[in-house]
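Recall the central idea of this unit: under ordinary conditions, the amino acid sequence of a chain determines the structure it adopts. In this exercise we apply that idea directly, starting from the sequence alone.
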Amino acid sequence: MNKKLITTGALFGMIAIILGAFGAHALKKVMPAEQLVTFETGVRYQMYHALFLIFISMKSEISEKTKKTIYYLVLSGVLLFSGSIYLLATNSLTSFNFKVIGFVTPIGGLLLIMAWAALFFNFIKKRQQN
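Accordingly, the structure predicted from this sequence is:
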């Protein structure tokens, strides 16, 4: 599980840097500032969670079950949250109206919150056992 956490975290981090650079250089020329700020929010949250996955992989105090739960919550959460933000922010650049998928953004956010809650409750449980 640790290898999967690190590789996914590294991939998410790499993609976040690529998308951040793309937003700062290419999209800056064709998107209004408000949409660019929205795009950057997706990049920022993706990077936070890339680092979160790598952090989780290094902690032996976290059970494998909790690591697996966090992994799938973060994977799904980033895809739904950041992914939908990228599409919504660039909506004006395409002929498809991505506003129809806007409802998945808060679902992705909830999944990310649940991942952090899983970490929190793992440590509460460990503390009570000691």
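Residues 81 and 109 are 6 Å apart (CA to CA).
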